[in-house]
Specification:
Length: 232
């Protein structure tokens, strides 16, 4: 079986935010697909501190991975070995490369077990006050300035035309620059939700305002995990 194990969004998240079954599934196996070994070990320790770290067998599954890189793990799964799949943050396979193994499991008749957990994308959406029935997640915006401008204005146009909420992210160290770009390229009356440090009881920041208000009240977002939502 492949267990899809959620990760915390903040290391300060209280453990009672999470279902006890997460710990149970972590204790069921020593074999895990992970995007980053250091992060995965911290997540495993958070949920199951009694788990013996030297016993862990971690297989890197990142955006560069291909099936050929995972042959050893796939052979183990075909022989009956259970695996867990742990994202960097939130749910596996959403803004995460884990779907490669999930797809392979379906093709090879290996059971996939999803486990409830937080998704920063969904938590940002439900906290925004925007349309939660119809929405699109776009991942990361282009880095090139002209391409980014075009994409931002296209997202704004989609909100105006369809009413669909438009969700996107940025690498945390570029968050402040993204906010500056949004202020520059969007109509002053277009509404934006910024949801940062979600699930951190000390520093969670979630607010929805028109761009003209964000221009006057810019939060400090440098190196802070954040999700951005445009809507109406």
């Amino acid at each position: 079986m492949l267990f899809l194990i959620p990760a915390y969004l903040s290391e300060n998240s209280p453990r009672d935010f999470f279902a006890p079954v997460i710990k149970e599934y972590i204790l069921k196996t020593d074999y895990f697909f992970v995007e980053n070994e250091k992060t995965a070990r911290k997540v495993i320790k958070f949920f199951a501190p009694e788990k013996k770290q030297p016993d862990l067998k971690l297989f890197i599954l990142d955006k560069y991975s291909e099936n050929a890189d995972l042959k050893e793990a796939q052979t183990l799964m075909k022989s009956g070995q259970d695996f867990g799949l742990i994202s960097e943050a939130g749910l596996p396979c959403i803004a995460d490369p884990g779907n490669l193994m999930v797809k392979w499991c379906h093709e090879n008749k290996i059971k996939v077990i999803p486990i409830n957990g937080p998704s920063s994308i969904i938590l940002a959406l439900i906290s925004s006050g925007f349309n939660g029935q119809e929405f699109t997640f776009h991942g990361y915006l282009p880095i090139d300035k002209s391409e980014k401008k075009q994409k931002i204005q296209w997202l704004e146009n989609q909100v105006q035309k369809s009413g669909y909420s438009q969700i996107f992210m940025e690498t945390p160290y570029r968050n402040n620059q993204l906010l500056e770009d949004l202020i520059q390229f969007l109509n002053p009356n277009t509404k934006l939700c910024i949801a940062a440090n979600i699930n951190d009881p000390e520093s969670e920041f979630i607010k929805t305002m028109p761009m003209k208000e964000w221009k006057k009240n810019k939060p400090e977002l440098h190196k802070i995990p954040a999700v951005f939502v445009l809507g109406r």
